[in-house]
């Protein structure tokens, strides 16, 4: 068959049937639905700061015995404080029906009531602000389709936990309004605080993840240190247990018992540790006996400190400078938190020191999570010393 004179000439050794292929482009894993990772990270950082403040204000509310000053749960109408003398008197009259007033604060003036009311109102108002910031941000990113693939459920989960926290908060407060109760139930307080730290930790983890692209995380994970990750995970779990124990201490004012260290009442173990003030089974002493509750909190503090040292020694052998620095920070903050804890016990948990101790727990919790994250996704340093 004759070749057309207009047909292009082929090279002598050209392969028949070949097609031109485009060169591979790096970073394809992050293409497609990339979303607004940076903007979402900023939004989560705002939530992170608000939740941190919420935990601190919640601690101050408990330490000032302000939690029962508002005797109803009104998520919408409660956003406005009393605006007239009559409204203030109505709030005060409702509080005077509680056993906390009758048995502990009888004779309190309206001005004194207002001081505790503002703590509780501010705590609840901050919760409303957090819910509003989450709702506005989530709807904006959802409706503008700027949420990265795989992140819608995660961000929705943060909001769902926040809503659950509001319900748990009222469940906690309602326990203190029952007959014979002068404070909220300590185990409900522990659940409330534990959920707050869980939300706080989850937001922190998402902030860490969104600070790097999915491709960077995938590559970094190949250099992850499995044993260090395991040690940091153990720190995270034990640290969370210690936070719950701290809530039990605060719930029954156990921090104001036995103002001495390292002994308690002249001995390592407090006297009569299994006495139950309200009667009942001995296991209730772990929740109701101030000496035993504080003793358990001290023992777990010693165990947590020892585990921090063990994990830090392993982190010293990490080839990644950022990982070593992260665990150096964990060790330093642990030492500071132990010192503040001892001061809290020696001075019988005054408001300033006790609140500083709770804030220290927040900082240490974030540092542990950061160390754990870098153990899993290390910042790899090149031969030239630059971080990738």
Automatic annotation (TrEMBL):
Pathway stated in the Swiss-Prot or TrEMBL entry: Porphyrin-containing compound metabolism; heme A biosynthesis; heme A from heme O: step 1/1
Record localization: Cell membrane; Membrane
Membrane topology: Multi-pass membrane protein
Class of enzymatic activity (EC top level): oxidoreductase
EC number(s) stated in the UniProt entry for this protein: 1.17.99.9
GO cellular component, one term: plasma membrane
Cofactor names: heme b
An annotated GO BP: heme A biosynthetic process
Transmembrane segments: 40-60, 125-143, 155-173, 185-208, 228-252, 295-313, 325-349, 355-375
UniProt KW keywords: Cell membrane, Heme biosynthesis, Iron, Membrane, Metal-binding, Oxidoreductase, Transmembrane, Transmembrane helix
Pfam families xrefs: COX15-CtaA
Catalytic function, reaction form: Fe(II)-heme o + 2 A + H2O = Fe(II)-heme a + 2 AH2
Domain of life: Bacteria
Binding site residues for heme: 297, 357
Gene Ontology MF term list: heme A synthase activity; metal ion binding
Function in brief: Catalyzes the conversion of heme O to heme A by two successive hydroxylations of the methyl group at C8. The first hydroxylation forms heme I, the second hydroxylation results in an unstable dihydroxymethyl group, which spontaneously dehydrates, resulting in the formyl group of heme A.
Oligomer status and interactors: Interacts with CtaB.
Alphabetized PANTHER family for the sequence: CYTOCHROME C OXIDASE ASSEMBLY PROTEIN COX15, CYTOCHROME C OXIDASE ASSEMBLY PROTEIN COX15 HOMOLOG
Family as reported in the entry's similarity comment: Belongs to the COX15/CtaA family. Type 2 subfamily.
Protein name: Heme A synthase
Natural source organism: Wenxinia saemankumensis
Phylogenetic classification of the source organism: Bacteria, Pseudomonadati, Pseudomonadota, Alphaproteobacteria, Rhodobacterales
